[in-house]
């Protein structure tokens, strides 16, 4: 039996003849934390809503454990959703909010009490049963929304930017809690966000979307270290992106000189794009550098300094834990592993 619990084939969604999701293919493994990442309007929430059953694809098919669910209504799918606006019932206390779906499924009161208690323990809110929704902080409300979704024991939990309303510190704490929760429960999470750091922190696999199309699918490490196009390179973290020529396997030309690299398979004398992450560039004495420049600006970012270095007619962004003063002449050192090659778009 396949370990792919959700699968989409040739999925397109149009509104009034305008496609917002364009012929995408994807799949999610059982017990995987998958994040759909992209800017606002890229089609990620529409994709999530099609998995949930709130939207029906214009064309294409959706499968759940190998069964076609393209036209299956939401209540018949073993899938639950947590929204950014938690949609908790304000007239019910916490216990009744979590118990709501269990009552619809006509479970007996003893079983409902046991399951609600287990969920409250899971989200670290034991003893809050009789509290009103209005008495909770944003983070606590978010946990109750998750508990309500999980109490029915779905095989897949969909989360649509559930941390978006929280402050930065609480959001980071909840990222860790959500990942730990997913591991403990052993169920599949499909998570939508536009926050790159959130995706890199939590995910086993990331789907990056733009303009309704999938740009890249891979692990956080693969996507960060080996972006497939300029959009991915620019969207995931900071990047220096330059045009270059792949002279042959393992040899590339950019910034008016040749560099050894680790990439192959692009052909000989092929126009390409080069990605170099700011943290991969080492600042050395001018005579030791492969390239030479002058520090034009320095900004302290908390864990590192961000420096802009003018080299020829280019400006390089460099992240380092040590600072060079503005106006300092420096050398730029790169190793073959620091250079990432992408096919040239267009």
Order of strands, main sheet, comes to 6-7-8-3-9-10
CATH superfamily of the largest domain: P-loop containing nucleotide triphosphate hydrolases
Structural class: alpha+beta
Largest sheet: 6 strands, mixed
Number of helices: 8
The helix fraction, in percent, is: 10-25%
**What string, H for helix and E for strand, traces the elements in order?**
EEEHEEEHHHEHEHEEHHEEEEEEEEEE
Strand content: 35-45%
Poorly predicted runs are none
CATH domain class name of the largest domain: Alpha Beta
Total E-strand runs: 20
By CATH, the topology of the largest domain is Rossmann fold
Give the domain tally. 2
General form = elongated
Mean pLDDT, to the nearest integer, reads: 91
Radius of gyration computed on alpha carbons? 24 Å
- What is the first-to-last residue Cα distance? 41 Å
Explain this structure to me?
This protein has 346 residues and is of the alpha+beta class. It folds into two domains: 4-230, P-loop containing nucleotide triphosphate hydrolases (Rossmann fold), CATH 3.40.50.300; 238-343, Nucleic acid-binding proteins (OB fold (Dihydrolipoamide Acetyltransferase, E2P), Beta Barrel), CATH 2.40.50.140. It is 24% helix and 36% strand. The chain is built from eight helices and 20 strands. It has helices spanning 44-52, 94-104, 109-122, 138-150, 168-185, 196-202, 220-225, 230-235, and strands spanning 4-15, 18-29, 33-37, 59-64, 67-68, 79-82, 156-160, 188-193, 205-210, 213-218, 240-248, 251-254, 257-260, 270-276, 282-284, 291-300, 305-311, 314-320, 329-333, 340-343. The strands form four sheets. Strands 6-7-8-3-9-10 form a six-stranded mixed β-sheet, sandwiched between helices. Strands 13-12-11-14-20 form a five-stranded antiparallel β-sheet. It is elongated, with a radius of gyration of 24 Å.
């Amino acid at each position: 039996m396949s370990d792919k619990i959700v699968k989409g084939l040739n999925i397109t969604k149009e509104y009034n003849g305008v496609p917002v999701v364009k012929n995408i293919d994807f799949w999610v493994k059982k017990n995987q934390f998958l994040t759909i990442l992209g800017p606002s309007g890229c089609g990620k929430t529409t994709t999530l809503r099609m998995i949930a059953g709130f939207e029906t694809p214009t064309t294409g098919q959706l499968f759940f454990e190998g069964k076609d669910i393209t036209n299956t209504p939401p209540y018949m799918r073993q899938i639950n959703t947590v929204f950014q606006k938690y949609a908790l019932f304000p007239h019910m206390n916490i216990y009744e909010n979590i118990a709501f779906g269990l009552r619809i499924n006509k479970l007996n009161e003893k079983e409902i009490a046991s399951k609600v208690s287990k969920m409250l323990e899971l989200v670290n809110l034991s003893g809050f049963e009789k509290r009103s929704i209005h008495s909770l902080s944003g983070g606590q409300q978010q946990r109750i929304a998750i508990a309500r979704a999980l109490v029915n024991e779905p095989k897949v939990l969909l989360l649509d930017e559930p941390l978006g309303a929280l402050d930065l510190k609480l959001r980071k704490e909840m990222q860790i809690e959500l990942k730990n929760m997913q591991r403990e429960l052993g169920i599949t999470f499909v998570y939508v966000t536009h926050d790159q750091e959130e995706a890199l922190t939590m995910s086993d696999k990331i789907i990056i979307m733009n303009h309704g199309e999938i740009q890249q699918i891979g692990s956080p490490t693969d996507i960060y270290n080996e972006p497939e196009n300029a959009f991915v390179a620019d969207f995931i973290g900071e990047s220096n992106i330059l045009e270059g020529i792949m002279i042959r396997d393992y040899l590339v030309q950019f910034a008016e000189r040749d560099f050894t690299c680790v990439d192959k398979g692009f052909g000989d004398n092929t126009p390409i794009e080069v990605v170099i992450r700011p943290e991969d560039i080492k600042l050395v004495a001018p005579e030791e550098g492969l390239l030479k420049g002058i520090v034009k600006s320095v900004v302290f970012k908390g864990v590192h300094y961000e420096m802009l270095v003018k080299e020829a007619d280019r400006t390089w962004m460099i992240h380092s834990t040590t600072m060079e003063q503005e106006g300092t002449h420096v050398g730029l050192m790169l190793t073959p592993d620091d250079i990432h090659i992408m096919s040239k778009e267009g």
